[in-house]
Amino acid sequence: MFEALTDKLEAIFKKLKGKGILKEEDVDAALKEIRIALLEADVNFKVVKAFIERVRQKAVGKEILESLSPAQQVIKIVYEELCELLGGSTSKIKLSPNPPTIIMMVGLHGSGKTTTSAKLARLFKKQGRRPMLVAADLQRPAAIEQLVTLGKQIDVPVFHSYEIKDPRELCKDALKKAVIDRADPVIVDTAGRMHVDEELMRELQDVKNVLNPHEILFVADAMTGQDAVNIAKSFHEKIGIDGVILTKMDGDARGGAALSIKEVTGKPIKLIGTGEKIDAIDEFHPDRVANRILGMGDVLSLIEQAQKAYDMKEAEKLKAKIEKEEFTFDDLKDQIRKMRKMGPIENILSMLPGANKFLKNIKIDEKEFVKVEAIINSMTFEERKNPKIINASRRIRIAKGSGTTVTDVNRLIKQFHEMKKMMKQLKHGKGFKLPKIFPF
Question: What Pfam family does this protein match (any one) (predicted)?
Fold first, then answer.
């Protein structure tokens, strides 16, 4: 996310820090470069103009320029204004005190609306709620089938019909069913088009009148940049929206949609899609995103991801195993799986401060993790527990069984022993070097 913009802003701020004493013309020169960087990131030009003006008003005062660290003060102002541009504070989905909460999902074809509906349902289910999905996109039978398939995958009921042709009738029946089943929330996947047209807007307005939804969420593809912003504005003007879900944020190196949409529509980004997996959806935190844009990382999100993947009791068991020097290949496989559950490794590393520089010098091959698991799976129970018994003939058998080479097996065993040594040194409070157990 925001890779190109982060690189440019870091270069601008590095130049600013190198000046020591700042003059008004230095700030103006830096703001000119920031303006160009934001425009190149596909941020709406009116948004950029207003943003630069707000920063300039706060940054060129005598109090700032004559402070002990003027460059840091300017960066702080940019950070604060970026937070405001992104929405100021985290906006959550409003839940009705009188269930069911009705959430109407709107957007164009290709934005990921149907998949996002299922992701949202899974999110609510994990919170202990009883969500129900409604397949109200009657224009495309494939959309109904897709939602039914996703519903089975996450074990959430999907109200649908191939006979009903009027979405209003379907929504009325869905609401009755939701009350009977005590479902909450009800997430309605509505029709979309390749572009905004009057027929679509009339249908959505009719559905809105039937549902009387508590939330209308516009789903947009972040990678379409200003197109997403303009379409969101059209939807808001025609039917009214309460918030935005940006999909494909993990593939958006520019960030123009995220930086423009709140200012243009007046409605906050509530959630972001961060990958193709059904659990790849997160709350949108403006302050954390501003940190990442400025190359400061996002440690809080990293901790939250780790907490989702790791159970505290399991972590205590693992700690006890390490202390007793009983860490096995099965434990290594388990830890690799948990780490991969947190998402793509690049995404995890990008949350660390300064990671954008670090990531440029390494190439991450996730296939190596698959190879490591295949090698471990080809070992016997005794071999995984006690690698010392793995002699030459066993290594040949393991390589054949895992579809790898003896060299791959030898490398993994060597790295495993290095990791065990590292754990022993850590236990005794000694310094250690990290073994190359991971594929970078």
Answer: SRP_SPB
